[in-house]
């Protein structure tokens, strides 16, 4: 290089063109500065985008952790919570096409910044009902509330309760009804989640393409891998934040916590669900600030200036030869001034029509070509059905652990964030590592994906044997005499022991008798007296507790009884199998993604990934939480009641029925997806000859019939990029 530079200098000196020498030195220095600014700019963008990925992953996982809290706070069934959860996908679908197409022509960093602001606005909107609907009121008998007045739980007639207290209580209920009748506050949560989906839309397609356009080619995959790694860390912190907020009472800072008579293990407990949304909203705002100061374009690296394969962005935006464009722009302005408005409208409409016809002419053959590929169609069906099972399972996993094993929301979220999610991340990484180390081709990727699904759902079968029995609740799961449950539980709540009491079957104010049985309320337990207040209230002379077969006393305390002694051990077994299952299912994510990319024509890849993303969101992301919620609602034994009448949230589930519905629905969907995966493998085998399979094993040819060895081997860059999350089906 030194010799060539000397020769050039000698040549120019002989021709006595001194200004060229100076300009060349200037161009060299400017090129070095340009390279430094390029590297610095892309790294700043990389750091900002990583923080945004962390913010959106945190807020999305935090929503999953607050499913049960939202259900109890707004007194809504699980099916409606599923609609709220699916509204994120609806918001994403509303503008994804516009953002993906027009976003490349505009200022991409600022569009991402605007998306962060919209996402934060939606997050704040979710928390708004806490400040609009007043304090949380749970069902409690007056004797358990701090008061100087003593009440008898078993009201044989209303004269036992002071008239002023009854009137006061009724007045509060009527005031609450007038306030609640005007609005359904859960709509704010739905609209907020919808806004979150809209704001999140530009982050992935515009952020990844910006890195791909302006990063050095050999570093692009590493940068994208860093972004996706940070995105995996987000859900861990989201669930840990959910664990922290679930410990705090919903009205912390607004009420005296000593007056709260329920504990985190109570079915009516609601944590400070809104606090995490405020934190997530602030993080989203901070994440969007750097993008408002980043340039629209960065200097392209030297390795990409002469590249023959330009990105989509380079087709729309060209910054080179600005001097040539200035004269053209001036001429264009003069021409526009000369034209009439009507002529402009005609030309614009014709241009739009021609563009639409051009798109349709290219779109329909591409769609026909894509859907004529049996491997793509079968894999698409397998992915839709499998993600239905996984999305439904992940959405209601916190609820399942709480109801099945009697764990608090705080502990449940802590376990999921600290154990399950790292297992998923490690499984994705392991799948990519296996593909790279053993140089697995397309046929091998299909086998690995099928094997991981098969063994993952096989392990899921073990969870059927790792459940807890129903808690003993008098009148619901056992009779008042100790025998097992009745058929009509509403009528079974009343018995001879509480026949003299004026009790309501709609109340849920559980107490634990000394016989280890939970009673729906102190009144239904036939308690005649009470001592103490708040959490320390003790009930005496409970006629129903005394008539139980194993009872030696007739007293009871506030709150439900603990589950059986075997339940904590079963919970540990569940965690072990759940972690192994999560890891096994995640191993097949990367091979499946590679299979999708390798078995379609190169010019159809972007279109195929777009159709794949659209199908997953419409047919899996939106409906799965809804029908899983409907199925879970069928296992409810005792519904709560709203202050103004009507059915509220479920207070008690049938543990056995919940286990069979939740795991059974997941397993059935997974089994159907396995059949489609088998069909994919069969089609691939039919398309490849025995010689191809042998060569594929040696790394020379692949199963999809492509000619280049390069197309069959898994590029390490793609393995770094490809992650497989329900909310991130594509990285383009």
From TrEMBL:
Membrane topology: Multi-pass membrane protein
Record-annotated membrane-spanning stretches: 83-104, 111-132, 220-250, 271-293, 345-364, 376-394, 414-434, 446-466, 570-597, 609-632, 661-684
Annotated compartments: Cell membrane
Segments forming domain Kazal-like: 491-546
Any one GO molecular function term: bile acid transmembrane transporter activity
SUPFAM superfamilies reported in the protein's UniProt record: Kazal-type serine protease inhibitors, MFS general substrate transporter
Main location: membrane
Statement: the UniProt record of this protein carries the keyword Protease: no
Cellular component terms per the entry's GO annotation: basolateral plasma membrane
Keywords, comma-separated and alphabetical: Cell membrane, Disulfide bond, Glycoprotein, Ion transport, Lipid transport, Membrane, Transmembrane, Transmembrane helix, Transport
Reactions catalysed: L-thyroxine(out) = L-thyroxine(in); L-thyroxine sulfate(out) = L-thyroxine sulfate(in); 3,3',5'-triiodo-L-thyronine(out) = 3,3',5'-triiodo-L-thyronine(in)
Stored Gene3D superfamilies: 3.30.60.30, MFS general substrate transporter like domains
Major facilitator superfamily (MFS) profile domain ranges (all copies): 45-688
Family: Belongs to the organo anion transporter (TC 2.A.60) family.
PANTHER family: ORGANIC ANION TRANSPORTER, SOLUTE CARRIER ORGANIC ANION TRANSPORTER FAMILY MEMBER 1C1
Full protein name: Solute carrier organic anion transporter family member
Organism annotation: Mystacornis crossleyi
